[in-house]
Amino acid sequence: MNFRDISIVALFVLGIGVIGCADKKRDEDTTSRVENNTLSTVDENKSTTTDPVNLNPVKLGSYDTAGNSSDVVLSSDGYRAYIADGSNGLVIVDINDSSNPTKIGSYNTDGNSHGVTLSSDGTKAYIADHSKGLVRVDISDPSDLFELGSYDTDGFAEDVTLSSDGTKAYVADGNSGLVIVDISDQYNLTEYGSYNTDGNSNSVTLSSDGTKAYVADGYEGLVIVDISDPAHPTKLASYDTAGYALDVTLSGDGTKAFVADQKNGLVIVDINDSSNPTEIGSYKTAGWSHDVTLSSDGTKAYVAYDNKGLVIVDISDLSQPTKLELIDTNWSVKGVTLSSDGTKAYEADENGLVILGLFGN
Question: Based on the domain organization, do 3 and 111 belong to the same domain?
Fold first, then answer.
């Protein structure tokens, strides 16, 4: 080998060394950034064959509520978070500064707050208050919250959603099934009708036209109820998932239901034919799935679950959902919602509110 050949080999070896050092430095920087924000991205299933997409999740801030948070919704402007905080009732947190969320109001309900939703004008909160049923609170002034009436359902209110016109509340009422409450009167809440499902109603969402209710019904899976006549709701069909259905949300076009199915993970159900729902695909989480929400473009599902935190699932191929990221916040997460631009996730966990920045925000 002549001098020229030796020089070429030396340069090649030196180049590999530089590239290797750069890769190591980049990996160390990424690890440091995540660890410094007390989050970690973990392999959930050892058998996963696709590499996770790095969304650079970071913890932006948190607020430790006094209760045990199970649900969170945001104001329309995204500046306030409304938290169903267990025995502590309703807690309102200013989230305008993600790094320093602060409490601006609270209302201690008589029951145990499990779910919360807001009126379209943002002046009232409707709380699924477990043994106390449905509670309505005036939130127009966060520093001066007061009750605007309640309705004591027969079961244990777990979740609530409103009709598009704001005149009816649909309550997932535990072992009493689905209860429809007339909320058109400012002070008096009265029952329209009910449908006693066979399982335990944990969550409810409505079709865009308001004619069908989709109920996460515990061991009975997904139950579809015809609510076109609120006084006489009737069952259309059901799909018995393999787990215990705790939450349900719909795709933007209303043809698919995404079910948080406790130990069975995430289950995707085709509901295009309301009389014959069928499973499309599923994703088995490592912990018990409690809540699910979708990205605005419908390509990702954010699943809150026990012991880990939040798993982000790629659902662009509904028949083969795959993990993108697992964000370990070290606590059991019961609820999750996204900012309107999809860059932040808000978790309701057993310590209160956690704000996560997605895509490095």
Answer: no
